[in-house]
Design goal:
By secondary structure, this protein is of the alpha+beta class. Helix content is 61%, strand content 8%.
Length: 403
């Protein structure tokens, strides 16, 4: 009779305090229908009750009846959840079951008592680790074979008592089932871990993208809207003075800031697109629209950069050009893009102002945003006046992005 692998009850009755289902995201291990396991166990018990003889209330019959009850209890105990039966207790229970099965074979004179030994040996392979399972199954074979040999006598056909030696063979089926179930459990746990890691990564990516969009909104709108608001408030204050020339001047400045904001918004949309032009062409177009034609110098062998790097370098250049126009109007601007073997470097320098700088002081958030962008790419950013060399006195922003 083939051995049917029992289903550990811990799949339907989890440990106390453990979360199940969607609460933990754990996936159940595929198992055989528990009803099949119950049917097989009950079939063995019923077959034994109908065929094992003698069975009564005295003498040999009483001994058979008691051993039958013990074997039935040992077989039914297979349904106990693994987490509720410590390994040592399982070893004791299964060892006693082996002795009870061998004793039932020796005491009974007929019937299917051997089925208890077969099914119990199979569960030994499933419930215990490989080494103790093989030892206990070997003991089961030796006991059953010895009992049959002693009860039948050496003059009987050797095949009859040799059959007892085969009672431990189902342990191999139990070991294979246990190994397969553990492999399936490990695969499911690995898939669950990978899914949770993917969700965490996706959430991190979303938060990172939100931070990038927040920086873009600041870079494009915060400065411009603050300047526009300041000019409009100035115009309102000047209306009471009756100085229409200064009112017009304030409105013109506000109008210029609106046009500059629209231009910056267009460049922001361009920089956020995945299909932007290569970095040199995008920088050249940005400089041309800002009135700084032929201000770009490219050195090194040009290479295609990741879209994320291009987007962030364009936003850094846009912020640097905006600051140059605000704080050093009329000053010449130079942009250098250097492709080295291990890095890409972008430098934006502006000379001192030749015109009147706009009123007000920046919030400093633009520089902070540039540093955050470079940090996300694993690079470094420096900003400040050039202390020596041919560009002494210029203001320079330098971003170095590793390859």
């Amino acid at each position: 009779m083939p051995y049917l692998r029992p289903v550990p009850a811990d799949q339907s009755a989890p440990p106390a305090g453990a979360d199940t289902g969607q609460a933990t995201g754990e996936r159940p291990v595929p198992e055989q229908d528990p009803r099949v396991q119950w049917a097989a166990t009950l079939a063995v018990i019923i077959a034994g009750a109908l065929t094992i003889r003698p069975m009564g209330l005295s003498g040999q019959g009483l001994a058979v009846a008691v051993l039958f009850v013990v074997n039935a209890a040992s077989l039914l105990a297979r349904r106990l959840p693994e987490h509720r039966v410590p390994p040592r207790l399982a070893l004791v229970w299964l060892t006693l079951g082996v002795f009870a099965a061998a004793a039932l074979i020796g005491v009974s004179s007929s019937g299917t008592s051997y089925l208890f030994a077969f099914f119990l040996a199979g569960h030994i392979g499933y419930r215990l680790e490989t080494r103790p399972a093989l030892v206990l199954a070997g003991l089961c074979s030796l006991l059953c074979g010895a009992v049959l040999y002693l009860s039948l006598g050496p003059e009987q056909d050797p095949l009859a008592w040799t059959f007892g030696l085969a009672t431990g063979i189902p342990v191999l089926i139990g070991i294979v089932n246990r190994t397969q179930r553990r492999a399936v459990r490990a695969a499911i746990e690995a898939a669950g871990s990978a899914e949770r890691a993917a969700r965490a990564e996706a959430r991190t990516a979303v938060l990172t993208e939100r931070g990038r969009i927040a920086r873009d909104v600041h870079d494009v709108l915060a400065h411009s809207l603050a300047g526009i608001n300041m000019q409009l408030e100035l115009a309102d204050a000047l209306i009471d003075t009756g100085d229409l020339n200064k009112v017009r001047e304030a409105h013109e400045k506000a109008h210029d800031l609106v046009k500059e904001s629209l231009k910056q918004a267009q460049w922001t949309v361009h920089a956020l697109r995945e299909d932007t032009l290569p970095l040199p062409q995008s920088l050249a177009a940005m400089l041309a629209s800002s009135g700084h034609r032929d201000a770009l110098t490219v050195t090194g062998t040009e290479r295609r950069l990741p879209a994320k790097v291009v987007q962030n370098l364009l936003r850094i250049a846009q912020e640097a050009l905006t600051n140059a126009a605000r704080h050093a109007p009329g000053g010449a601007v130079d942009v250098e893009l250097t492709y080295a073997a291990a890095s890409t470097t972008l430098r934006i320098r502006n000379r001192p102002a030749t015109g009147e700088a706009g009123a007000g002081v920046g919030s400093g958030m633009g520089l902070i945003g540039m540093r955050e962008r470079v940090a996300l790419l694993g690079g470094t950013l420096t900003a400040g006046p050039v202390a020596e060399g041919p560009y002494q006195g210029d203001w320079q922003v330098e971003a170095v992005i590793p390859q």
